[in-house]
C-alpha cells in the first residue's frame, strides 16, 4: 500500500538563541492510510512542531524547515507554495487542536464555521452545504444537530465543542487528520467518548490519523503504531503492542515506567487523631442577572460537603472539572468564603473567622498550587519567596535564611537557588519551590490542588515521591485534589469522589478501586485511558526487561 | 539580554535618547551660557538670527531667543517630569485600589475616573490654571489632574488580572497583608506598562504646558517655549525666527520622548521582542 505521508530527514530549525539548534532533528516517519499513528513525548520533545511542519503552520520565519522532505502523495509539503498548502489544508489534511474553545471562532455559529469549510474548498449550493453539515454533526453524535448548527461555541460543552471541531475537520473527507492533544483539556469520561469517536470516524472514513499526545494511557487506547520522541529525536517506533509491551529504548521504558499504576499502593495504618473536620460545607456561585434583570445562574460548587482528615493521612478529592473539588480546597485554606458549614481545625471553626482572626491559623494550613509557572512571583528571588513566610511570623532574617536553605535541601534543590529568579527553573523545580514555600510555615495540613497535572509524567513521579517523603518526615496530613485516578491511586489513603458539588462516595483507596459502590465512581474508573494495558503484571514485565 | 541591548535594538529610540540628553544638558547649563535673565533686553529688537550677537535672533522687546530656549528647556522638562510623577502617583493609587478590591470600590473609583475622562483635557487644564492663578505649581497640578485617568485605568486592568494569579493567592495563604501584597507582589509586576505610559505622558505634559503658556496662562516669571511662541505669534511674517526656533525645540523634545518611550516599550514588552 502507498504511504499517505512520508517524512524523511526532517529538520525544524529554531532561532539562534534557543537551547538547541533544531526542534526536530533527522526525523523519519510515515503514515499509512487507515491507521492511527501516535507521536508521544514530553514537553519540548518537538512532537507538536512536527505536526505543524506537516501542516505548514510553523511560526515562520523564526522557526522553519531547514532540511528534509514531507512527502504527501508525491508532493513535498516542505517546498510547495503557500497557495497550494492552503488548498491542501482543510480538504486533504485537516487538524484538530487541544483547546476547542480557542480553535473555534467565538462570534460565529457552528453552522457558519462548517459552511465556511465547504465554501472555501468546493462549489455546491447552499442547501446541499447545510445538509452535509447536518449530516456531519449527526455523524459525530452531537445531541440535537439542528440546534447545534445555530449554536455559538460558548453554548456547547468542552466535549461537544471538540466533536464539532472533529466534524469540521472531517467535512471534506481528508486523507489525513492531525490531532494535537485533542483530549488533554477534557474530562476523563468525555475524553473516553471523544477517543472512541475519533477511532470510529477514522475507521469509517479510512483516514490516516497523526495523533500527538503526552499520555500513554491515550496511546494504549487509540494507537495502531507509536512513535516516541525525546528532545527532537525519534527514539523508538513500532506497533502499539511492541512499544508498550516490549519497549527497547531506555527513555521509552522510563516513560512507561513513570505512568502511575492504577492498582492502589498498599494501605497504611490510619491514625486515630483527627486534625481537620469539614462539616456540611456550602458554597454557591451566582452569575448573570444583574442590572437589567434576566435569570441568574446558581451553581452549587460545594453542597453539603463533609469529611475528616486523620493525622498523617492523605485524603484524595477526585472529580471532573466543575465538580467543586477545587472550591472545597480553596474554602479550607480560606481563599474562598463558604456560606455555611464548619471547618474544624482542632477545636476552632475557621469558616466564620475574619481576616485578622484567621491570620494566626494561616500557618497551620498551607497550599501547593497547580500551575508552577503562575504560582511564583516572577520578580522575586527564590530565597525571598520561601523566607517571607517565616519572617512575617516573626523569624529573624538569619533564622529565615537558615530555614530556607534547609527547605531547599529537603525538596532537592541546590542552595544556589536562593539568589535566582523563578524563570531560571523548570516546571518540576518550580513546583519544588512551591512546596518549600508551603512547608516554610511548618503547617499541619497541606492542601495540594492538582500539584502534578501541569507536569510531564517523569517529573510527576518525582514530585509525588517528594510529597510522600515530606508527609512522612513532617507528619503532615494532606488533602490532595486531582482529576487523575492513577495519581490518586498512588498517593491517597482515602478518596472522596465529588460530582456537581456533592461528595458521592468516600472510602479507603483500595475499596474504592476494587469495589466502587456509586455508578459515577464506576463510570470514572471505566474511563481511565489505557486501563487494560498498564496493569500491574504488565508494568512488572516492563521493569524486568 | 540586558535592558540596554534590548533598548538599543530600536535605533530610533537611541537617537531619541541622544536628543533628550542634549536637551537635558542644555537645560542644565542654561545659566552658564546665558547668565542674564532671559526676560531682559539683550540688544536690538527684531534682530534676525546671526546678527547683533544673537545666535537665533531677538524678539520685539529685544529678548534673546536662544537664551529663552535654553531656559525654557528647564521649565519644560521640569514641568513634564513633575506633572507625570504626580499623575502616575495618583493613577497607581486609584487603579491599584480599584483593581485589587473590585466590587463597589472599583465601581466608585472608576466612575470618578470616567468623570475626569469625559471633560476635554486641555480645556479642563485651562480652567484649572485660570482658577488657581498661573504658577509652576498650578500648572503641574492642572496637568496631573487631566492625565492620571489613563494611568489609573491601565493599573486597574493589570491588578485585575494579577490579583487572581496563583502567586498572589499563595501570599494570601501565607497571611500577608493587603498593602504588602499590593505594593510588594503585584505592583512590581505591572510596572513595565506604567513606565512606558509614563514616559509618553512626559511628552503630552510638555505639550500641554506649552499650550497653556501660549495662551498666556504660563507662570509669568518663568521663561517657557510656549510663551515665546505666543509672544512671537503676531510677528510671524516679519520675524519668523521668534516662533520657529521654540517650535522646533518643542517638536524635537516631544519626538525624542516618544521615540524613547517606544524603545522602552519594545524592551520591556516581551511579546514585541519576538517581532523581528
UniProtKB/TrEMBL annotation, chain A:
Coiled-coil ranges from the UniProt annotation: none
Biological process according to GO: peptide transport; transmembrane transport
Keyword GTP-binding: no
UniProt-listed Gene3D superfamilies: P-loop containing nucleotide triphosphate hydrolases
Protein's membrane topology: Peripheral membrane protein
An MF annotation (GO) of this entry: ATP hydrolysis activity
A Pfam family that the UniProt record links to this protein: oligo_HPY
The ABC transporter domain, residue ranges: 5-256, 276-525
GO cellular component, as recorded: plasma membrane
Protein's cellular compartments: Cell inner membrane
Keywords per UniProt: ATP-binding, Cell membrane, Membrane, Nucleotide-binding, Transport
InterPro entries (alphabetical): AAA+_ATPase, ABC_Ni/Peptide_Import, ABC_transporter-like_ATP-bd, ABC_transporter-like_CS, Oligopep_ABC_C, P-loop_NTPase
Keyword presence, Lyase: no
Family matches, as PANTHER family: DIPEPTIDE TRANSPORT ATP-BINDING PROTEIN DPPD, OLIGOPEPTIDE TRANSPORT ATP-BINDING PROTEIN APPD
Family: Belongs to the ABC transporter superfamily.
Protein name (database record): ABC transporter ATP-binding protein
Species in which this protein is naturally found: Thetidibacter halocola
TrEMBL record, chain B:
Family: Belongs to the binding-protein-dependent transport system permease family.
Stored PANTHER family: D,D-DIPEPTIDE TRANSPORT SYSTEM PERMEASE PROTEIN DDPC-RELATED (PTHR43386:SF1), OLIGOPEPTIDE TRANSPORT SYSTEM PERMEASE PROTEIN APPC (PTHR43386)
Annotated signal sequence range: none
Protein name: ABC transporter permease
GO cellular component entries: plasma membrane
Domain of life, source organism: Bacteria
Gene3D superfamilies: MetI-like
Tagged with keyword Repeat: no
Pfam families (UniProt xref): BPD_transp_1, OppC_N
Keyword Amino-acid biosynthesis found: no
Subcellular location: Cell membrane
Keywords from the UniProt entry: Cell membrane, Membrane, Peptide transport, Protein transport, Transmembrane, Transmembrane helix, Transport
Transmembrane segments: 12-34, 77-103, 190-218, 238-261
GO BP annotation list: peptide transport; protein transport; transmembrane transport
CDD domains (UniProt xref): TM_PBP2 (cd06261)
Residue stretches making up the ABC transmembrane type-1 domain: 73-261
Membrane topology: Multi-pass membrane protein
Stored InterPro entries: BP-dependent_transpt_permease, MetI-like, MetI-like_sf, OppC_N
Amino acid at each position: 500500500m502507498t504511504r499517505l505521508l512520508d517524512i524523511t530527514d526532517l529538520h525544524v530549525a529554531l532561532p539562534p538563541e534557543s537551547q538547541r539548534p533544531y526542534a526536530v532533528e533527522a526525523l523519519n516517519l510515515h503514515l499509512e492510510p487507515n491507521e492511527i499513528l501516535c507521536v508521544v513525548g514530553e514537553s519540548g520533545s518537538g512532537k507538536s512542531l512536527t505536526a505543524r511542519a506537516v501542516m505548514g503552520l510553523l511560526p515562520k520565519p523564526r522557526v522553519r524547515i531547514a532540511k528534509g522532505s514531507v512527502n504527501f502523495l508525491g508532493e513535498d509539503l516542505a517546498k510547495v507554495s503557500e497557495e497550494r498548502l492552503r488548498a491542501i489544508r482543510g480538504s486533504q489534511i485537516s487538524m484538530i487542536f487541544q483547546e476547542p474553545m480557542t480553535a473555534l471562532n467565538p462570534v460565529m455559529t457552528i453552522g457558519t464555521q462548517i459552511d465556511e469549510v465547504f465554501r472555501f474548498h468546493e462549489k455546491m449550493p447552499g442547501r446541499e452545504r447545510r445538509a452535509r453539515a447536518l449530516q456531519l454533526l449527526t455523524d459525530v453524535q452531537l445531541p440535537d444537530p439542528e440546534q447545534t448548527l445555530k449554536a455559538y461555541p460558548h453554548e456547547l460543552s468542552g466535549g461537544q465543542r471538540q466533536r464539532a471541531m472533529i466534524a469540521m475537520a472531517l467535512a471534506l473527507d481528508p486523507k489525513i487528520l492531525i490531532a494535537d492533544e485533542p483530549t488533554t483539556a477534557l474530562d476523563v469520561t468525555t475524553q473516553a467518548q471523544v477517543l472512541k469517536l475519533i477511532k470510529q470516524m477514522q475507521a469509517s472514513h479510512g483516514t490516516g490519523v497523526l495523533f500527538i499526545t503526552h499520555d500513554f494511557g491515550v496511546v494504549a487506547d487509540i494507537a495502531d503504531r507509536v512513535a516516541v520522541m525525546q528532545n527532537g529525536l525519534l527514539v523508538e517506533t513500532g506497533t502499539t503492542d511492541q512499544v508498550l509491551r516490549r519497549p527497547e529504548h531506555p527513555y521509552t521504558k522510563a516513560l512507561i515506567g513513570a505512568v502511575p499504576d492504577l492498582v492502589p499502593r498498599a494501605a497504611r495504618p490510619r491514625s486515630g487523631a483527627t486534625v481537620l473536620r469539614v462539616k456540611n460545607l456550602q458554597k454557591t456561585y451566582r452569575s448573570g442577572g444583574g442590572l437589567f434583570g434576566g435569570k441568574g445562574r446558581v451553581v452549587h460548587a460545594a453542597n453539603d460537603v463533609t469529611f475528616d482528615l486523620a493525622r498523617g493521612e492523605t485524603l484524595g478529592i477526585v472529580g471532573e472539572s466543575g465538580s467543586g473539588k477545587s472550591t472545597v480546597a480553596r474554602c479550607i485554606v480560606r481563599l474562598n468564603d463558604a456560606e455555611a458549614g464548619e471547618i474544624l481545625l482542632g477545636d476552632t471553626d475557621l469558616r466564620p473567622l475574619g481576616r485578622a482572626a484567621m491570620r494566626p491559623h494561616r500557618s497551620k494550613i498551607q497550599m501547593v498550587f497547580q500551575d508552577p509557572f503562575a504560582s511564583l512571583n516572577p520578580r522575586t528571588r527564590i530565597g525571598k519567596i520561601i523566607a517571607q513566610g517565616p519572617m512575617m511570623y516573626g523569624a529573624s532574617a538569619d533564622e529565615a535564611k537558615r530555614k530556607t536553605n534547609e527547605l531547599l535541601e529537603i525538596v532537592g534543590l541546590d542552595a544556589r537557588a536562593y539568589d535566582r529568579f523563578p524563570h531560571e527553573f523548570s516546571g518540576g523545580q518550580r513546583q519544588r519551590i512551591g512546596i518549600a514555600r508551603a512547608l516554610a510555615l511548618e503547617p499541619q495540613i497541606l492542601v495540594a490542588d492538582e500539584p502534578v497535572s501541569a507536569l510531564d509524567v517523569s517529573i510527576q513521579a518525582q514530585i509525588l515521591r517528594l510529597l510522600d517523603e515530606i508527609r512522612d518526615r513532617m507528619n503532615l496530613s494532606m488533602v490532595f485534589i486531582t482529576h487523575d485516578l492513577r495519581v490518586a491511586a498512588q498517593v491517597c489513603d482515602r478518596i472522596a469522589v465529588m460530582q456537581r458539588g456533592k461528595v458521592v462516595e468516600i472510602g479507603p483507596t483500595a475499596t474504592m478501586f476494587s469495589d466502587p459502590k456509586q455508578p459515577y465512581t464506576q463510570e470514572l474508573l471505566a474511563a481511565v485511558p489505557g486501563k487494560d494495558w498498564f496493569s500491574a503484571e504488565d508494568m512488572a514485565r516492563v521493569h524486568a526487561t | 539580554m540586558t535592558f540596554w541591548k534590548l533598548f538599543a535594538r530600536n535605533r530610533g529610540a537611541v537617537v531619541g535618547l541622544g536628543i533628550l540628553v542634549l536637551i537635558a544638558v542644555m537645560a542644565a547649563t542654561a545659566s552658564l551660557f546665558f547668565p542674564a535673565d532671559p526676560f531682559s533686553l539683550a540688544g536690538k529688537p527684531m534682530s534676525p538670527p546671526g546678527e547683533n550677537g544673537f545666535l537665533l535672533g531677538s524678539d520685539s522687546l529685544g529678548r534673546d531667543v536662544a537664551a529663552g530656549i535654553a531656559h525654557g528647556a528647564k521649565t519644560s522638562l521640569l514641568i513634564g517630569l513633575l506633572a507625570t510623577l504626580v499623575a502616575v502617583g495618583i493613577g497607581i493609587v486609584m487603579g491599584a485600589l480599584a483593581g485589587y478590591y473590585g466590587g463597589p470600590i472599583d465601581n466608585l473609583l472608576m466612575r470618578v475616573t470616567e468623570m475626569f475622562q469625559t471633560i476635554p483635557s486641555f480645556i479642563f487644564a485651562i480652567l484649572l490654571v485660570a482658577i488657581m492663578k498661573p504658577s509652576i505649581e498650578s500648572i503641574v497640578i492642572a496637568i496631573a489632574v487631566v492625565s492620571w485617568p489613563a494611568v489609573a485605568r491601565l493599573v486597574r486592568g493589570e491588578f485585575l488580572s494579577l490579583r487572581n494569579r496563583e502567586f498572589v493567592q499563595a501570599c494570601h495563604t501565607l497571611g500577608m497583608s493587603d498593602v504588602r501584597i499590593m505594593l510588594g507582589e503585584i505592583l512590581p509586576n505591572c510596572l513595565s506598562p506604567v513606565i512606558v505610559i509614563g514616559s509618553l505622558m512626559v511628552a503630552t505634559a510638555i505639550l500641554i504646558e506649552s499650550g497653556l503658556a501660549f495662551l498666556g496662562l504660563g507662570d509669568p516669571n518663568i521663561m517657557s517655549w510656549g510663551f515665546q511662541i505666543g509672544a512671537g505669534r503676531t510677528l510671524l511674517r516679519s520675524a519668523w525666527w521668534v516662533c520657529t526656533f521654540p517650535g522646533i525645540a518643542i517638536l524635537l523634545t516631544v519626538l525624542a520622548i516618544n521615540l524613547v518611550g517606544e524603545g522602552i516599550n519594545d524592551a520591556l514588552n516581551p511579546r514585541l521582542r519576538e517581532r523581528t
